[in-house]
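User: I'm designing a mutation panel for DUF7984 domain-containing protein and want to avoid disrupting the core. Could you give me a predicted structure to guide residue selection? Please restate the sequence first so the numbering is unambiguous.

Assistant: Good idea. Sequence first, for numbering, then the predicted structure tokens:
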Amino acid sequence: MRVTPQTVRDEHAWVRDRADVVVPILNDTRDRLGRLFDADVDAVAPDAYRREVDAVFADGEVAVNVAGCVALLRDLDVEGDYPGFVVDEALGRELAATVAGGRPLSLLAQATFHVADVHVDRDATAETDRDGAGTAGADDLDAALAAGFQTRLPGWDWREGESPFAVDAGGSE
């Protein structure tokens, strides 16, 4: 695979246009996590997702890595699917982490990826190959985008406001 600035622009457009698939997965994941952790989590609108896609791709160093992972997962297929389980999971986790940003959000996005992934039906979200079946990486791609963007977007109460763990190095005893 060769990744060029045009490849990054093309993948940006593809990820941005994927809002109608990714946003429902993202919101379903937020609902599931909210129930698990007894938290109210705001839903994400397609326009908010698209703006955040633009923000991710505005950072060239992040954009080239996101584009590379997206392109790999879009094309990844393994005969029989199961033997490729490790590579599509690894790429999905890394894509989610890269989209989410640095630590601790990247680690949270990796964990969230697995929650989203088990609820994504490969054939329902995949672009079809010549045989009409989704590629092995398709469900992981959609789950990764949902996990990464749900992690970085606002809506979780614990992320709103100042952290009680921040240290004021300017004068507190």
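For picking mutation sites, this is relevant: The CA atoms of residues 6 and 121 lie 30 Å apart. The chain has eight helices and no strands.
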